[in-house]
């Protein structure tokens, strides 16, 4: 049964949180899945207040980020010990494009590009770029990343503001286009994504603090964060799985298949995609 209008049920919060961990670790668009799964299951998720819905999605990212920081603490400590001007430049330049574009265009993107059809388009576009990028030579390592690479990563993260694109998939594809190895592409993707996730979480927290959180939303939010944290911890083996894979093709195929299922449903029931669901 769907929750009352303007609310989020505990069951839905639990399932979305459990989904978020593995979806965030794979280049398949966790935010796109947060749009499509409720739609495919017939939940009235779009009835939830848009700011509250976005805040819920951000706290899921925060739960995932916390689990990643715990799991990857050795890698984070290594990066912190070796932090220098080059790494500072990498973080800052890769952070600026998504921050500026997100602040300027977040609302129009949510209003106009939050439908299942647009998410399907993002899945297909991202899959095409991933397939092309993965054919590039593997000549570079993460220590070689410089200013031009940082801008590429930043532009990729800005593109990931579009529903279905995937921040992980976009940054990994950008790194592969720049001829980094598959393993180092994933490492760079994690390093540049965490500041953006943290920044988005901080911004949404401030907004949420100003608006206040309805009492009935406290339990679903807490359960969703806990589920995202736990599912990420349980899914961190996927990081090694992605890095061991010799190709991004399987993820591109999955994205196209999911998009195809969405488009097939839209053709059979056109009105099902008429309402905008903010990413």
Q: Residue ranges: pLDDT <50 for 5 or more in a row?
A: 1-5, 273-279
Our count of domains comes out at: 1
Give the mean pLDDT: 85
**How many strands, which pairing sense, and closed or not: the largest β-sheet?**
none
Q: Percent of residues in beta strands?
A: under 5%
Helix % is over 70%
What's the total number of strands?
Answer: 0
Order of helices and strands: HHHHHHHHHHHH
Query: How many DSSP helices?
Result: 12
Outline the structure in words.
With 279 residues, the protein is an all-alpha fold. It has one domain (10-273). It is built from twelve helices and no strands. It has helices spanning 10-25, 30-41, 50-71, 73-81, 85-112, 116-133, 147-159, 167-177, 182-211, 215-235, 237-244, 249-268. Helix 5 crosses helix 9, helix 6 (116-133) packs antiparallel against helix 12 and helix 9 (182-211) runs antiparallel to helix 11 (237-244). The longest helix is centred in the C-terminal third of the chain and has 30 residues, at 182-211. The protein starts with 9 loop residues before the first helix and ends in an 11-residue tail after the last helix.
């Amino acid at each position: 049964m769907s929750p009352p209008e303007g609310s989020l049920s505990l069951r839905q919060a639990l399932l979305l949180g459990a989904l978020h961990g593995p979806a965030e670790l794979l280049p398949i668009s966790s935010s796109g899945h947060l749009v499509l799964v409720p739609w495919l299951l017939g939940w009235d998720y779009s009835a939830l207040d848009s700011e509250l819905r976005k805040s819920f999605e951000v706290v899921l990212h925060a739960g995932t980020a916390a689990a990643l920081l715990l799991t990857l603490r050795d890698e984070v400590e290594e990066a912190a010990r070796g932090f220098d001007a080059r790494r500072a430049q990498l973080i800052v330049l890769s952070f600026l494009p998504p921050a500026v574009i997100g602040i300027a265009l977040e609302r129009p993107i949510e209003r106009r590009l939050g439908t299942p059809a647009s998410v399907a388009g993002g899945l297909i576009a991202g899959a095409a770029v991933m397939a092309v990028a993965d054919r590039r030579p593997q000549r570079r390592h993460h220590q070689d990343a410089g200013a031009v690479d940082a801008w590429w990563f930043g532009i990729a993260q800005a593109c990931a503001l579009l529903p279905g694109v995937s921040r992980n998939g976009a940054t990994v594809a950008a790194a592969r286009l720049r001829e980094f190895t598959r393993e180092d592409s994933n490492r760079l993707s994690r390093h540049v994504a965490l500041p953006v996730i943290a920044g988005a979480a901080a911004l949404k927290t401030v907004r949420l603090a100003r608006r206040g959180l309805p009492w009935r939303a406290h339990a679903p939010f807490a359960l969703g964060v806990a589920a995202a944290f736990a599912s990420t911890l349980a899914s961190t083996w996927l990081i090694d799985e992605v890095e061991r894979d010799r190709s991004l093709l399987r993820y591109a195929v999955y994205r196209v298949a999911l998009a195809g299922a969405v488009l097939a449903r839209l053709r059979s029931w056109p009105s099902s995609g008429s309402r905008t669901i903010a990413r």
